[in-house]
C-alpha cells in the first residue's frame, strides 16, 4: 500500500469540504469519555458524501447504562449527522453490539436515517460490498457476553490511561499516539483474534457472494485482500480516529484524523505502520 498525506482544501477551495462518493464510519462510542468527538466533528467538516454508512457502535449504550456522560460535543455529533441527512445525504445505520437497542428498529427511519441489520453497497465500479458491524462473528460476544462486558471495563481503563498519557504528550509538544492501541497490538492473543476475525468476515463475504466486506467492531482500521476478497475495517473514533471512504472511481481509502501536524513514519512503532501515524492521511487499497 502507498501512504500519502491528505490536504482537504487543496482542490476544493479553503471553505469547501472534500467530496467523496461514500463515507463509512464506525465505533464513535458517543457517551464514553474516550470518544474523540471533537476530532470526528473536524473530520465531518472536511469530508462530505451523498451516502453515509454508520457501521455500528455509534452510541455506547453499555457505558450509558453504568453512568451518564454526554457532553455538548457528543450532542453536536448527533446534530451534525442529522443535518447531513436533512440536506439530502442518505444515511444508513447498521447497529453494533454497544448500540444493540437500535436492533429493535430494523426497517424504520428516524430523522432521515435508515436502520438496517446489514446491507449490500454497490461501488462506482460495480463491486458489491457487505456492510455489517461484525460483532455477530466475534465468538466472545456470541458465546460469553459476561466476558465481553468484563473486557469492556478493562478497555475503558486502558482508554482512561491513554487520555492521561496523551495529556502529558501535549504538554511536551508531542503529537497524539494511542498507548491503548499499541498495547493491544503487542498482545499476541489480541493479534491472533484480529486475524481470525478478519478471516471470518471474509468467509461470510464469500458465503454471500460479494466482492468485499466493510465492518467495524475491533477498532483496527485496515484495507486488505484476503484470498481475493477485499476486507475493509473502518476503525474507530476512540483510538485510531479513522473512517473509510469510497471515491468516485470506486476505490477505497482509510482516512486517519489524529494530529494537526504530520509525523515522520519512523517515529511510530513498526507494528502500527499499516494503521498510519500522520495526521489527515489516507492509505490506498490493495
What is the topological layout?
Layout (H helix, E strand, L loop, with lengths): L2 E3 L12 E8 L11 H10 E8 L6 H6 L5 H15 L3 E4 L15 E2 L2 E3 L3 E4 L5 E4 L7 H5 L1 H27 L7 H8 L1 H20 L4 E4 L6 E5 L2 E5 L8 E5 L5 E5 L24 E3 L3
Parallel strand pairs: 2-3, 3-4, 4-6, 8-9, 9-11
Antiparallel strand pairs: 1-14, 2-12, 5-6, 7-8, 10-11, 12-13, 13-14
Overall description:
The protein is α/β, with parallel strands linked by helices and 286 residues long. The chain contains seven helices and 14 strands. A hairpin with a 2-residue loop joins β10 (222-226) and β11. α1 packs parallel to α3 (72-86).
Task: Summarize the entry for a quick read.
This protein has 286 residues and is an alpha/beta fold. Helices cover 32% and strands 22% of the residues.
- Secondary-structure element sequence? EEHEHHEEEEEHHHHEEEEEE
Mean pLDDT: 79
Q: What spatial form do the alpha-carbon principal axes imply?
A: globular
Query: What can be said about the biggest beta sheet?
Result: 9 strands, mixed
Amino acid at each position: 500500500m502507498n501512504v500519502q498525506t491528505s490536504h482537504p482544501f487543496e482542490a476544493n477551495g479553503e471553505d469547501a469540504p472534500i467530496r467523496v462518493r461514500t463515507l463509512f464510519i464506525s465505533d464513535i462510542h458517543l457517551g464514553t469519555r474516550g470518544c474523540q468527538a471533537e476530532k470526528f466533528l473536524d473530520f465531518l467538516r472536511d469530508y462530505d458524501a451523498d451516502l453515509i454508512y454508520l457501521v455500528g457502535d455509534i452510541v455506547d449504550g453499555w457505558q450509558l447504562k453504568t453512568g451518564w456522560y454526554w457532553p455538548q460535543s457528543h450532542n453536536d455529533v448527533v446534530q451534525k449527522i442529522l443535518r447531513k441527512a436533512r440536506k439530502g445525504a442518505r444515511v444508513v445505520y447498521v447497529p453494533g453490539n454497544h448500540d444493540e437497542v437500535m436492533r429493535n428498529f430494523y426497517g424504520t427511519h428516524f430523522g432521515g436515517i435508515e436502520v438496517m441489520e446489514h446491507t449490500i453497497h454497490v461501488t462506482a465500479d460495480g463491486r458489491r460490498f457487505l456492510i455489517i458491524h461484525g460483532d455477530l462473528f466475534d465468538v466472545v460476544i456470541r458465546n460469553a457476553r459476561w466476558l465481553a462486558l468484563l473486557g469492556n471495563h478493562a478497555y475503558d481503563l486502558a482508554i482512561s490511561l491513554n487520555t492521561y498519557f496523551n495529556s502529558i504528550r501535549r504538554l511536551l509538544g508531542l503529537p497524539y499516539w494511542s498507548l491503548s492501541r499499541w498495547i493491544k497490538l503487542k498482545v499476541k492473543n489480541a493479534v491472533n483474534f484480529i486475524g481470525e476475525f478478519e478471516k471470518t468476515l471474509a468467509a461470510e463475504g464469500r458465503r454471500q457472494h460479494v466482492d468485499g466486506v466493510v465492518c467495524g467492531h475491533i477498532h483496527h482500521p485496515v484495507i486488505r485482500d484476503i484470498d481475493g476478497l477485499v476486507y475493509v475495517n473502518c476503525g474507530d473514533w476512540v483510538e485510531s480516529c479513522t473512517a473509510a471512504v469510497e471515491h468516485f472511481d470506486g476505490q477505497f481509502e482509510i482516512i486517519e484524523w489524529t494530529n494537526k501536524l504530520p509525523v515522520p513514519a519512523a517515529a511510530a512503532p513498526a507494528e502500527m505502520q499499516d494503521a498510519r501515524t500522520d495526521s489527515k492521511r489516507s492509505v490506498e487499497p490493495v
